[in-house]
Amino acid sequence: MSDQVVTRFAPSPTGYLHIGGARTALFNWLYAQHTRGKMLLRIEDTDRERSTEAATAAIIDGLTWLGLTWEGEAVSQFQRAARHREVAEELVRLGKAYYAYETPAELDAMREAARAQGLPPRYNGYWRDRDASEAPKGLSGAIRIKVPRDGETVVDDLVQGEVRFPNKDLDDFIILRSDGVPTYMHAVVVDDHDMGVTHIIRGDDHLTNAARQTAIYRAMNWQVPKMAHIPLIHGADGAKLSKRHGALGVEAYRAMGYLPEALLNYLARLGWSHGDDEVMSIEQMVSWFDIVDVNKGAARFDFAKLEALNGVHMRGMDDTALTKVFFETLPHLPNGEALALQLDEKKKAKALQAMPGLKERAKTLVELADSLYFIAADRPLQLDEKAASLLDADAKAVLKGVLGHFHALNEWTAETTEAAVRAYAETAGVKLGKVAQPLRAALTGRSTSPGVFDVLAVLGRDESLARIADQID
C-alpha cells in the first residue's frame, strides 16, 4: 500500500445527497486534501430495485455544487459484480469460505430454534465443514465466509478508539447469494481493496459492519484500511435527524439560499472543531482538519446557527463575487426565475451597486432576492400591507414636502439626498424617521429595506422622483 492517503465517498443512489452524506463526503475530502492524498467516488448501486440514474445525477450535482472534487471517474459498484464473484470463489478455493444450501424455510427454522434456546438468531454453520459431494443436486448454494469461532475481532478506530467484537457474535455471513449476486458487505471490501483505499471514513452506523469486513480482509490476506466511524447528526432536540430537522437533500439548501462555503463551514463544525474558530474558509478547514480530532458524540443540527453563519459568509464576500453567485443561484431560488426575467443588465448593475447595503441585512440569498424587489419592480409599485398602511394622508403630505427639496438638488447621491431630507425635517419640525419611513414605503413598496439614502442613490434621480410622485397622486 502506498504512503498516499486514499479516501472514498461511497453513497447509495436511492435518493438525493442528504446532509449527513454531505458531511461524510466533506470529512473524506478534507482529510485527503489535508494529507495531500486523494478522494475517490464510488456509487454503491448494487441494490437494483432502489438505485436510480436520477439519484446518481443528484448526488454528483450536489457534490459539484459544494465543490467537493474526486479523482478520476465515479466507479459503479454494480458493474464490478464479476470481480466480487471471483473473490468469493477464490475464498472457497482457499478453504476460507464455503457453499451453504439451506432454503429460506430451513434458515427460518434454524433461527427459531436458536431463539427457543435463548440464543441470538444466527446461522449455525451447518455446511461449514461438510464435503462438497453432499451438496443437493441441482441447487446452487450461497457462499458464506468462515468467521473465526473463538476470540474477538478488534477494530482500532481513529474516532471511536478500540472496539472489540466477540467472533461468536459475527456468524458465517453470506458474501455471495445463491443467484450469484454479491452482498454489500463483500462488495465494499473488494472495491476498497482494488481501489487502494487507505482510510475508510463513514458514519458510525457502519461500525458493526467493520468487524465483518475485517474478517474478509484477513481471509484474503489483504491489509485492512484504517477506519474512522464518525457520529451521526441529530436534530436540535437530540433525536435522530429527520426531514423536520433538516435531513434534506443538498439541493434544498441551495434553494434556501445558503452559500456552499457556509454550508461546508457549518458541516465541518458538526462533530469537529478547531479551538474557538466558528467561521472558517475552505483553505483554513483543509489546513486544520485531522480525522482524529472528530468527536465521538453525535452532533446537533441547528438551522439558526447555519443561517447566522451564512450571513457572516455573505457579509465577508466581495460585492462582485457575491452578486455573481447570487445571479448563478437565482434559478434555484423560490420565484427566482421570475425575478431573473425582471432583471435586465441595467437593473443587474443597480443590484451590484446596492450590494453593500443589501448584504448587511440578509442572512440568505433568498432574503437577498426579497430585498432586491425594489430594484426589480416596475412602476407603479405593488405595496405590501405594512408599506400601504404607512402611506396615510399625513405621510403623503410629508412626501410632497420632501419632493420640493429633492427637485432643487443639482447632484443626486446618498449624501445630497440625506442633506435634503434633514433640511426638510428641520423646517417641517418633524423627526427624521417620520420622513424616512414613508419615503422607504414609496420607494421600495416595503417597510424594511437597505438604508433609504442608499436606495435613493441606487434607483437614481428619475426613478426615485417618479416613484414618490406615484404615491402622492
Automatic annotation (TrEMBL):
Name of the protein in question: Glutamate--tRNA ligase
Organism field: Mesorhizobium retamae
PANTHER family, per the entry: GLUTAMATE--TRNA LIGASE, GLUTAMATE--TRNA LIGASE, MITOCHONDRIAL-RELATED
GO molecular function, one term: glutamate-tRNA ligase activity
Its biological purpose: Catalyzes the attachment of glutamate to tRNA(Glu) in a two-step reaction: glutamate is first activated by ATP to form Glu-AMP and then transferred to the acceptor end of tRNA(Glu).
E.C. designation(s): 6.1.1.17
Stored PROSITE patterns: AA_TRNA_LIGASE_I
Family from the record: Belongs to the class-I aminoacyl-tRNA synthetase family. Glutamate--tRNA ligase type 1 subfamily.
Compartment annotation: Cytoplasm
Primary location recorded for the protein, binned into one broad class: cytoplasm
Residues annotated as domain Aminoacyl-tRNA synthetase class I anticodon-binding: 340-471
